[in-house]
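Entry for adenosine-5'-diphosphate complex. Fields follow.
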Amino acid sequence: MIELKDITKSYKVGKESFDVLKQINVAIHQGEFIAIMGPSGSGKSTLMNIIGCLDRPSDGKYLLDGEDISTYKDIQLAKVRNESIGFVFQQFQLLPRLNALKNVELPMIYAGLGKKEREERAKQALTKVDLGDRMQHMPNELSGGQKQRVAIARAIVNQPKLILADEPTGALDTKTSYSIMEQFTQLNEEGTTIVLVTHEQEVAEYARRMILVRDGEVVSADEQVRRVTT
Ligand code: ADP
Ligand code: MG
């Protein structure tokens, strides 16, 4: 589905140039569930932002379903992002003045859907993440786990084929983390491709493949981490 070829990302800070990603080669296949791990500062978030078309590489190719999108204009990339990718973040990134339902409606506003359809689909998505009884709650009236579920509902509401989650359990306690990972597992079993960044081995074990990043390089991309479940 996605192929990154010799992706490099450098930043200029003052007069110095830093290579944050160095010739990364990664393939993500449809239906995969991948955990990206690596030390802090190794380039995981930078890589996620490039995969999510939130940022552009300095060099290299990005193939989406065989098509080179590294040459796309910003507006074309925004379309790809809105139609095919859902995002989940460590700090949830909900709008504080909108209730759960309105937060989930946001991506559909960008997609230009009418009010009735938006509401209907947002309700469906919230019900799917077990928040059918919290639709009118404001973010500050929800627990951390519930906020992350709202964020997941928002991520899936446009039915993306890929979900990117950067440390989605980083702000949650262990038990809540597991329930969020169960949610991702269910989405993956229904066919959604999932790529997440985590520091925690227990969280990574929900994935089926691990990509290890160190100092801007992929040092391993085929480790199987799936727990044996009976
Ligand atoms: P990780 O998510 O693995 O902790 P990041 O991808 O956030 O790492 O950052 C990797 C490196 O890139 C860090 O050394 C960071 O300082 C640097 N970096 C990230 N964003 C920028 C930026 N906008 N300008 C300059 N350097 C950056
Ligand atoms: Mg990071």
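NOTE: The first strand starts at residue 2 and ends at 13.
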